[in-house]
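As a warm-up, study this chain.
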Amino acid sequence: MVTIVIGAQWGDEGKGKIVDFFAKQADYVVRFNGGNNAGHTIINKYGKFANHLVPAGIFHKKAVSLITNGVVVDPEVLILEIETIKKAGIDLNNRLFLSPRCHLILPYHKALDALYEQAKGKGKTGTTGRGIGPAYADKVSYNGIRIADLLDDKIFAEKLKFQLDLKNKIIQALGGKPLFYNQIYKEYLDLGKRLKPYARETFTILNEAMDKKKNIIFEGAQGVFLDNDWGTYPFVSASSVVSGNATAGAGIPPQKIGRIVGVAKAYATRVGEGPFPTELFDKDGEKLRKEGKEFGTTTGRPRRCGWFDSELIRFAARLNGFTEIILTKLDILDGFAKIKICTGYRLNGKSVNYVDGDSLFLAKIKPVYQEIKGWKMTTAGIKRFADLPKQAKDYIKTIEELVGVRISYISNGAKSHEIVKV
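Now compare it with the structure written out below.
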């Protein structure tokens, strides 16, 4: 069975916890897109971890973790994560593999990321500054350097020299200071030697696993509305986030995918710039941020908060083919007497849909709300769906009806075991 877990909003939906939950029965857990601009928080018996590159399934001894070709890799970040996980007592021997086809994030990518944002001024897109966009830009413009190149001293030296000469011209033109070849070359050669034991062609591993009917979990990074094509462009990520990208990002045929799980918060959040139709600027928004501890795993930035948007999730479900939805952070709504759900959009008196326009269009639309009575009691710690307050069950049922996809689980706490089957 191949299962894909996708964020159904703008990321930060709690995918790390859900992947960790599914990984208990998994043989393989796969990261297939993005870079260390994603952050999955896992709280388990080993401690609290913010994984940016290593799949969340690494904490389950049976599961092998794969970082496949669709991921761009900052070697320094990956080494730090590996060391942190090993210090927690997790054995990584033959349990973590990295595709040699992964493209590298180099110091000039981070420098350019910051300089591009600075140059945009008021038009900045709110990147994490991790060099993700410039690394993907190099990939598609045939200027990328891959893990395989890093593992060959001569090839890496040639490619780095050419690219650094080119990038320094752009960096200086934008007012930045040039970077030094020798420093980067020595540092990255050392990082490459430390990563070499993990480098292996993941296509072969995955396809052999599928032939043997192994249980494989694909762990998506970010969320649908940060997808480079289908998100709120240009306020998006550099990679393709949708479920179909598992084919390109990991090398599996689409007919092998059997289950596609969308993960959505019981409300909505967003980090950075871009349209957010249900964003709240009042005490309810502040309460969601405070109660939900809504600060970015990767950047620490405060997240913008708003009500659940069923128009977005309907679109995400159709685009990705969700077979089910997992609703997270239901417990954060415990203290609200009244809760709103966005049922659709209107513009100039007419009903419109997400797909009808671009970011400028979405910034103008008005959300249409349905108000739900809150439950005003604690759901945290409840282990059976039948024991949830009636109003909480009504809220879940209303979302199912509006979105048209069943909710299979709800999460009512931060820890891995705090999850309830619906």
